[in-house]
Amino acid sequence: MQKVPSHINSRGSSLIEILIALSVFMVFVVATIGATTTVARNARHVANSERAAFLAEASFEIIRNLRDAQYDFVNLPDGTYGLANLANVWALSGSFDVQGIFSRTVTLSTVNSDQKRIHTVVSWEDQVLGIHTVAMDTYLTNWRAPLNIGLTVNKTVVNHGGTKVLGDFLPNSLQTLAWDNSVEPPVQNTVNIPIVYSPFTMTLGPGVYTFLTTIDPNYALTLSADCLGNSIMLANGDTKLCTITYEEYVIPTVTTPTAALITETTATLGANVTSLGIPASIGERGICWGTTPAPTTNCVAEGGTTLGIFTQARTGFTAATTYYYRGYAINTTGTGYSADGTFTTGAATCVVASAPVGIPTVYDSASSASAVVTKPTGVAAGDILFAHILHNPAANIDRLSVIPAGWNLVGRHRNGNYNQALYYKIAGAAEGANYTFGFSAASKIAVTLSAYRGCFDVLNPISVFSNTKYVVSNTTYRAASMTIPTANTTVLVFASMYTTTVRTFANPLTQGGGWTEDYDRGANTSDFSRASYRRFIVAPGVTGVIDSIGTSGSTVKHVFSVGLTPL
Q1: Is the pTM of this model over 0.70?
Q2: CATH number for the 261-344 domain, one of 2.60.40, 1.10.12, 2.60.120, 2.40.10?
């Protein structure tokens, strides 16, 4: 085989090697150029990002300067703006601004009365990598707003016999909402502010502060104007006082019971409400009365619901009875009473005449030194008895000398031999069956006993009387006029004459008539005729003469008239 010359092979290998070397070199050069380009592009992106971040942060400072130099915080407007530097003075301008390749927007929004959010976006465009943005947020505060000074919470407890203390009642703290800016976005959290003691003064920022209170059925809660509704609203510069008072409930206070215009069945009663109690409102006030102390019966509301003196006219009482009474007032806590007062109703006022009891009893004798007269049938304790005593001793003397025990003189009169007397007695519980009147010597004697019941004062039964001798020779038997001091008075008339002939009498016609004859006895063995009449006189005043009529004329005539003291 023929060998190829070695120098020819060497030349071929060199060429190939050169080509390979050039290829490797070109690859290296291209790789080097690409790497250099990437590094340059990355460096430019980093630089642009840093520039964008700078522009974003610069916008924060610009807005702060605007707040402090050109705008008050409150007047810094919300919205999206650009920033412009006009003669070295920054201003909000349009909706964005351009700084070289960068476009910037600044958005302002209100978070609360003392805080705004600043949101800044800076964007630019890279021909290879596209559009890039840098966004940043910060918060702007109203640092010039003054702090609130002097919120004082004063919690008090007022006891009226109770033992509660401050620790038995809320609040022990205040609650409010506060912004937490440590998170994004900021959030509001509830914050508890302790009330360490009372009164307790705190320095707080603006906002709304709330608190809890205790509901106690025995204590009234009162809040001052600064914290009504368990809420305190603080604005800049406020100084407020929140007073929280727990006061133990109290019944009303009633004093000074009074009684006036007392009659047999009516009275005007009153009292004085000096405190409405706690709560300070009453539903009614009035008077209670009864026949035993501390009455809780017959309680009637007067109609008022305020402090002060009140009176009310009350009825339904019984005559001549002692009553206890007291004022009362009611609130939701209970009923308060005054001390007891007492009054006694008047005795019953009679509106009818005293009534005769039984039939009058009589004694007649032509000659006797004593007269035994039987008590009228039906006489009871408290009745009044009248003894009309006439005697003629045939001598110009008065021989009536013995009067039974318990009898009281109304009047005596002597007209020559003709003697008249009138006595009365209040019957006791154990009256005898008869009464004996004695004379110093035997005489002609006539005695009549009459009894009456009701409508007179047994302690002072006779209010007025007249003792009249009437010597005019005619048929009139006249009693002198009397002045009746009291309304509703029973008037009794006892007329007599000495005659040997039986004489009778007719009812008086004076005072408008209306007289009732209780007895009419003509002369018997005593030679005395006598009669009695009764009339109820309503109005007080002068009666005028009281004339009764006999059947014949005489000059030996006499009349006693008596007014019984009414109840």
Answers
A1: no
A2: 2.60.40
